[in-house]
Amino acid sequence: MKIVYVVPGVMAEEEQRRRESILRDWAFEGTQVDLVCVPEGPASIESMYEEYLSIPSTAKLMVEMEERGYDGAILGCAGDPGLDAMRELTEKMLVVGPGQTSMIAAAMLGHKFSVITPEETLIPSSYELAFKAGVLEKLTSVIAVNIPVLELMTKRDQSLEKIIQGGRTAIDRDRADALVLGCMSMGFLEVSEEIEKALGVPVINPAKVGLKMAEALVDSGLRHSKKAFGTPVKIRSGKVKSIDDLYQRG
Amino acid sequence: MKIVYVVPGVMAEEEQRRRESILRDWAFEGTQVDLVCVPEGPASIESMYEEYLSIPSTAKLMVEMEERGYDGAILGCAGDPGLDAMRELTEKMLVVGPGQTSMIAAAMLGHKFSVITPEETLIPSSYELAFKAGVLEKLTSVIAVNIPVLELMTKRDQSLEKIIQGGRTAIDRDRADALVLGCMSMGFLEVSEEIEKALGVPVINPAKVGLKMAEALVDSGLRHSKKAFGTPVKIRSGKVKSIDDLYQRG
Amino acid sequence: MKIVYVVPGVMAEEEQRRRESILRDWAFEGTQVDLVCVPEGPASIESMYEEYLSIPSTAKLMVEMEERGYDGAILGCAGDPGLDAMRELTEKMLVVGPGQTSMIAAAMLGHKFSVITPEETLIPSSYELAFKAGVLEKLTSVIAVNIPVLELMTKRDQSLEKIIQGGRTAIDRDRADALVLGCMSMGFLEVSEEIEKALGVPVINPAKVGLKMAEALVDSGLRHSKKAFGTPVKIRSGKVKSIDDLYQRG
Amino acid sequence: MKIVYVVPGVMAEEEQRRRESILRDWAFEGTQVDLVCVPEGPASIESMYEEYLSIPSTAKLMVEMEERGYDGAILGCAGDPGLDAMRELTEKMLVVGPGQTSMIAAAMLGHKFSVITPEETLIPSSYELAFKAGVLEKLTSVIAVNIPVLELMTKRDQSLEKIIQGGRTAIDRDRADALVLGCMSMGFLEVSEEIEKALGVPVINPAKVGLKMAEALVDSGLRHSKKAFGTPVKIRSGKVKSIDDLYQRG
Amino acid sequence: MKIVYVVPGVMAEEEQRRRESILRDWAFEGTQVDLVCVPEGPASIESMYEEYLSIPSTAKLMVEMEERGYDGAILGCAGDPGLDAMRELTEKMLVVGPGQTSMIAAAMLGHKFSVITPEETLIPSSYELAFKAGVLEKLTSVIAVNIPVLELMTKRDQSLEKIIQGGRTAIDRDRADALVLGCMSMGFLEVSEEIEKALGVPVINPAKVGLKMAEALVDSGLRHSKKAFGTPVKIRSGKVKSIDDLYQRG
Amino acid sequence: MKIVYVVPGVMAEEEQRRRESILRDWAFEGTQVDLVCVPEGPASIESMYEEYLSIPSTAKLMVEMEERGYDGAILGCAGDPGLDAMRELTEKMLVVGPGQTSMIAAAMLGHKFSVITPEETLIPSSYELAFKAGVLEKLTSVIAVNIPVLELMTKRDQSLEKIIQGGRTAIDRDRADALVLGCMSMGFLEVSEEIEKALGVPVINPAKVGLKMAEALVDSGLRHSKKAFGTPVKIRSGKVKSIDDLYQRG
Fold it and tell me: How confident is the model at residue D150, as a pLDDT?
């Protein structure tokens, strides 16, 4: 099985390789995992605007990855920006969003979960994501730790502490019995075990669970439903030749 | 009051002026309405992918329109592509999406409404829009007439007939008591009166209602909530100077 | 366009003229606004019982206003007492309830809103109103300030302070990002701008927004759905001649 | 235990005695049941307007019945008109609405129920009633048989046939596994056994179940919650002496 | 009418007679109430595992009770363990679960109710029960008093105090306007009147209300829906002769 | 990783080995899968009663499997009988139910799914399962093919045809865009690929997906939440020594 992890924003080469290496450690034995990154895009995604900015070049890269023969792809942002579009454009390659996938994993393990998100401004879109995933009924709260995404990795200890503190509020006040880390950079911090130990509830790492679920679905022979995510009508009907032609310049 | 209607895809100059002229006819006496169009974008929006493609240049144009002193803007697509992002980037200028606005108008006039949409592939996103608008409980069905958006205007009679037929199904089978035209091109066909006469229930024209609601809210002194649609943190904190800097090229 | 504001309880002539004058200031240029008041009814509406008491004479007045040629009517109480009945009895004149309309305006501007209501006893009916409006999903809380309606105007400063305090709880504890003033007397206090300045979220004035939305819908050529609000069968079938005959005395 | 059945519209004396006699047959051994009727009101209730018309004199009669020492009262219309107001005005006497009570009985016996209602125009209010009762999730459909209420009794056989036909649709198409007769005149037709035999699912007679549930709750020592249905503030605070003073004439 | 109360766990003979005697005091005049107890089962039910353990022998006893001619049965545990199975196996005898019945009684008396439950571990299943009853929308919270079921009766005063304290939280924090005692042992403590006096909201005793509702439904001629709770197919088709044959040993 | 598949009813040794062999084919390379079967239980599970009958001995076997060092267990029935109890009794070994897991997989791949179930009587419990899984919003219908479970395997072609026919109804009438096979025997028929080919939407095989998801979650280092599924209080507090002591005989 071949899985590709697609980073929807610009990222230093070194960090790309670090993440790829972690993903390869996590993968099942027979899985080949590669990480690719868009040539241009936002530096990090902390608003809906940045989510949208990331989509055009990511979608293009996804189509390319399908052509290269990958069986599954992980859209590397916990906001799942443009997941529905990526699925419209692909058919043989499963695309999963780690945000929805993590919420769904939390739903499988308990009754009520909370999402820990970096910024206040990301709270409303977390509810929309839970609606799209179909598990809104189990989302009891979204808690912001107010750490800019790009500082999460440079201030690991402080981040860890704030996440644990937010998680405790979720458990005590909102009756959460599972937690979702709502950001890929939190995922690659590799802190979920420590948080789990501190709080005593399952902590979903979107990076790890995104990969595992993609492997599980692909190995089950499943792809996203084309009845749910139809190919754009201009492409299906042959009116345009490639996805590039859907965008008209000047 | 100054209102701008922003077309999020490419459109022939003549059609732009035609629509602007209709909008000016519809406007209240003291309202100045202008129509502007993005320099580049999709030819029409019939998939989520095309929705996303339209957002970056539209958002930029929205910011420019706020700077030019408009009080309100209408995002000219019934899918409301990127409405939340446009609202993140503006504060003094109200931005409304005609899709959500039309659903809300339908909710004000009856108990259950249906949306008539051009293509099957647009059905799922209509439910998501109703969720975002907060009126999902009143949406009883979404019915596709299977006419490509760009043919709606060239085949007016056939379109009208199919819309009426779809509306009848909505009323008889799904108990709809109001209908929403789920596409701006349907709106500028100026067919809602004829449909209403044929079917006997209110028919919401997203173009007209989008304008009227924008005028009503602006004249009430209201803008979208910045607590709900926060300015992107990198801009708010001064880390970047303009929205262009949120996107990094090679 | 001719709009009438119908006061569903007894009110001093002077206060009637004061409110009429405010409404005329708020109206669009081409709109004629008049205020009429029932000859008999409750002194104020602070319970469901008083809501119901107000309906028979208000409904009669509504029918009269339709006959007089008004295009739209505002039912002057934020509980929207008998709105469905008023709509059953009218067809050419749009009737809007400022309670449902304000909630819907709040839904258009943010993700979660709270209602500020005068009395504890009005809390449950606010939830029912949100259900009828179809926006229950966005109503995060209803907060009572415990000021009798008739004291709201005599104790303006104290009322303002309590409303701001209640609004702050709504924002901080319940994550409201927009507020609705749940009482017309609050609306005619003309305090929404001050509250908005203090709290930083949109504050919906039901009197102003009720008028603006009525103007917007009427100017869109829309009326409430007669499929949703059918004419009473005894009238439709001709069994009784007038609405008076629906009530049998001794 | 003393239970009173309050008819909220005018009714021939003979029919009153017939219904009273049926109620007495249904009652538990130790229960005294009386039927009283408002001196003035609608001839039948087939619209929201007629519901509202019935409330003022019915509420007054309810208060009188509480003073006369009844333990429980049944509001004799399946639309439960003004139930919340009746509960605001009473404390020692339980007031139940047969509409909500019947829906709740259906919820106790199966998974999904349908309501059979006389007229199309009563369909929307049935959903609102189910919302108020808290069992909206179990209401799968409302089916109108299109028989005016006053003809239900004169055309018993035709009514029975149409109700059975409507019930069959509910069962086959909407997966109902219990039926509620949504009208008191249907209840006093004494047809539920025949319908049940024909269709094989429980058929809730609102008249019978309204009485039985009232007896059950009263004998459990329960009354409606005064925290939920607070006494109108003007009465509670002593500002007015009686409920009559809440209404001001000329 | 003959009603049987079936204890689904082992219980001392003396306590059985005490409870039977209380039930007989509560019953309507014409009702014969008997209490029977399974020969083997859990000592008390404080987990889902103990709920399930209780079902096989209780179901068998239920079938026997139907054969003995009882009109109605109360499943004597507020978790309603296996209620759906008991209903699958019976047809002429109504089976009610006091848990769902109490929630439904609370829904009939107010807008929002809370459940007071002995242990934290019982909280999630209370939400599931409310879903099954169809009244989840009215359940505002479940509050655990952390007293093992078997200590409830030996420490009556302490239990009473903790229940009142939990109820106060429910009322003040969660806006409950009615309370349900979520345990039969709480019911037979006969403390609901004291709690009601202390807190001023209706307090539902599942033991008493379970009996009263069973009497009300049976006397209305109603049984649970066999379309909702179908006889197991192997029995219906005659493939097995008795329910014992559904279980195969070694 | 060691995974055990626990059959909760009696099954012929040969069929056990056949299923085990299929499971081993499906497993990831590093996974050891074993199949164990309860010594006594129902012959098949087609009613809630049979679900409950299966739980006591299955729970015991689960506890034993945890002691034997398995990392994860699959409860081999698509009704997930007693899943919550199994999770109360285990901590180091993840227990998944293939019913909930399959629904969740369907939710990950589309917008609306339907369940194909063997018997009409299993329809209501499928809705309850979707509620427990948290994905009720995405379940659009449950369709019974009316084939007894034990005949599914002997009449493979007829079963396949009926499942395809039911699936077509789900897609065309109920807008399903993914299907769940609601029975393990359907899963081990190995027909999902054929159905998928015939219908063009993802078809979830509960046996395969149950295994894959168990592998994915275990390999993510996750277990079910003990805050959600607490150890029975009598065990936690040490009042009883083993789960056997929770059941008292004669």
Answer: 82
Q: Which DSSP category does C230 fall into? A: P
Identity of residue D205: N
What pLDDT score does D86 carry?
A: 98
DSSP characters over chain A = -EEEEEE-S---HHHHHHHHHHHHHHS-TT-EEEEEE-SSB-SS--SHHHHHHHHHHHHHHHHHHHHTT-SEEEESSTT-TTHHHHHHH-SSSEEE-HHHHHHHHHHHH-S-EEEEES-GGGHHHHHHHHHHHT-GGGEEEEEE----HHHHTTTHHHHHHHHHHHHHHHHHHH--SEEEE-SHHHHTTT-HHHHHHHHSS-EE-HHHHHHHHHHHHHHTT----TTTSPPPHHHHTTSSSSGGGGEE--
Per-residue pLDDT for C130 more than 70? yes
Q: What's the rounded Cα separation, in Å, for the pair A154 and F167?
A: 52
Which residues in chain D are closer than 8 Å to C50, comparing Cβ atoms?
232, 246
For residue C191, the distance in angstroms to the closest alpha carbon of chain D comes to 24
Q: What is the pTM of this model?
A: 0.96
User: Which residues of chain D neighbour E220 with C-beta distances below 8 Å?
Assistant: 105, 204-205, 208-209, 212
Has domain E2-97+210-246 been given CATH number 3.40.225.10? Answer: no
pLDDT, tens digit (0-9, with 9 covering 90-100), for A46-75: 999 999 999 999 999 999 999 999 999 999
Separation in Å, CA of A168 to nearest CA in chain B:
25
Query: Residue D162, Cα to own-chain centre: how many angstroms?
Result: 21
Q: How far apart are CA C121 and CA C98, in angstroms?
A: 19
- Label residue E26 by pLDDT band (50, 70, 90): very high
Q: Look at D202 and E225 and tell me if their CB atoms are within 8 Å.
A: yes
Q: Any bridge partners for residue E173, and if so which? A: none
User: Which residues lie across from B73 on neighbouring strands?
Assistant: B4, B95
CA E166 to chain centroid: 21
Query: Across residues A86-109, what is the average pLDDT?
Result: 98
Asked whether residue F77 carries a pLDDT value surpassing 70, the answer given is yes
Percent of all residues in chain F with a pLDDT value above 70, rounded to a whole number: 100
CA–CA dist F140, E26 (Å, integer): 44
D99-208: what fold?
Rossmann fold (3.40.50)
Q: If you search the block for the tokens 């006497």, which residue do you land on?
A: D93
pLDDT at E211: 98
Chain A, 169 to 208: residues with Cβ < 8 Å from chain F are 171, 177-178, 192-193, 200-202, 204-205, 208
Query: So where are chain C's domains?
Result: 2-97+209-246, 99-206
C11-26 average pLDDT score: 97
| Rg of chain E (C-alpha set) | 18
For chain C, the farthest-separated pair of C-alpha atoms sits apart, in whole angstroms, at 57
The domains spanning F2-97+210-246 and F99-208 adopt the same CATH topology: yes
Exposure of C5 in the CB half-sphere (CA atoms within 13 A) = 31
CATH number for region A99-206: 3.40.50.12500
Tens of pLDDT, residue by residue over D69-89, are 999 999 999 999 999 999 999
List the CATH code of the domain at A2-97+209-246. 3.40.50.1860
The answer to whether F127 faces chain D, any CB pair under 8 Å, is: yes
Q: Please identify which residue in the block is written with the tokens 């439903």.
A: A225
**CA–CA min distance B34, chain A (Å):** 21
Both tokens assigned to E237? 């088709």
**For C29-80, what is each residue's pLDDT tens digit?**
999 999 999 999 999 999 999 999 999 999 999 999 999 999 999 999 999 9
CB-CB neighbours of C133 under 10 Å: 27
Q: What are phi and psi of D201, to 5 degrees?
A: -130, 160
Residue A193 has pLDDT above 80, yes or no: yes
